[in-house]
From TrEMBL:
This is Schlafen AlbA-2 domain-containing protein. InterPro entries: RecG_C_sf, Schlafen_AlbA_2_dom, Schlafen_AlbA_2_dom_sf, WH-like_DNA-bd_sf. It comes from Eubacterium ramulus. It comes from the Bacteria. It holds the Pfam family HATPase_c_4. Coiled coil: none annotated. Residues 27-118 form the Schlafen AlbA-2 domain.
Amino acid sequence: MKKEVLEALQLNENHERECKLAEGGLPESIWETYSAFSNTDGGTILLGVKEHRDSFTVNGLNDRQIVKYQKNFWSTINDRNKVSKNILLNHHVKVIEYEGKNILEINVPAADRHDKPVYIGTDPMKGTYRRDYEGDFLCTEASVRAMFSDQRDISVDSEILEEMDLDALNADTIKGYRVLFEQLHEGHPWNKLLKDEFLIKLKAAAKNKRGTVSPTVAGILMFGDADRITDVFPDYFLDYREECDDKRVRWLYRTHSNEGDWSGNLFDFFYKVTTRIDDDVAVPFMNRRNGVRVDRVDVHDALSEAVANALVHANYYGKRGIVIIKHGKQISISNPGTIRITKEEFYAGGNSDPRNPNLLKIFGFVNVGERAGSGVDKIMTAWEEQYWTKPRYEISIKAERITLYLEVGQVVYIPGAADLNVVREPEYYSGLVSDREQRLLDYLTQYGKISMGKATEVCGYKTKSATRKLIDKMIKNEILERTGSGPATVYILKR
């Protein structure tokens, strides 16, 4: 019954919703839910309905109740002493019918970061709510302050640290960065600049009110010494650990920003970590590109992207810092601060809104995380191409943390590389196949295998049924063959 009711209301099982019978008037708790939906990913409030574990009770509302509730709702939501902001338009509140009974539906969109926090009453510290799988919860003061901080269009990492001089930055880190920059940008005019001029171009430093040069927040995080970084961010901490199943061994290897024998900044941490996690990506000897063994592939770039994402998105005022753990083939990458866009936008990619855009630019100049902040799709695609376990993000609104769980293994397919086991070239079929068939052949020549879902994407079809007809035709013509079964089914060139 639950499924049928949801379909009738045009909602899916995972849609965020709050159902209230509302027999005695407009429920007071509706405002907590309005705040929670606004500050999270949006949702739908249904008045006249009660939700049970496996079913709904639909009592509906009479005409008098509907008129009264609508009037009271709009009156309250537009009262700044009761609700901080109205983010709804007229079409967000409507009457819907189910089996002859009227229900009042209130669709609450996710608020833009410029409008958050949306809170009840006049004190945001006592009236701001968010929502997780357990329901609505009151936000901590730190969470509310983070939302106010995220309202700014001028990022925190562009702030000039007026009282600091450039000696707060680590000279060896800057030297290493410049060497890498010069290797990647031969002949670039910045290569001839003095240190302070170069840092100003990077937006790692800027002129202060005294007329001298000070680091920016981005500069101190990227190039500073840990003891100077914690002067600005007391809870700043970078932690990388390699663990094992033996409980007697606390960790196999660990490095963190407070060790004192290295800088403790983001740039050096990035390379210390990625060098070690890259080692578990096994590249088979047979893979070649232009006759040369390929040691670095898309998965390595995706791993770098994942680490860079955590560093660029982090809220450095948050607790527990950046934590990266490698346990065998499993890797978790966790950072303080939640996403500033909806989950739907986050997974779709292309709309990153990074919390620290200047860090992103500084990394980008040395080809690190070129798409950091919007690279979720890049990470997912790299893993899909290898048929590895799908990466999983855990976005904890209550803990204000994002954690990415990855599992690495043996590299199978390398874009642009020739696998010595592939014996057919796409030209073999030239003139005998359609444009979509040729796309599949081009893909298979590079990657060796293709799933039905990936084939649908490559062909440009909207449904798998159309792809299935094309693949069946190619199997019948002895161009492709099927291997595996169930969800593991893939298609390869017929030998």
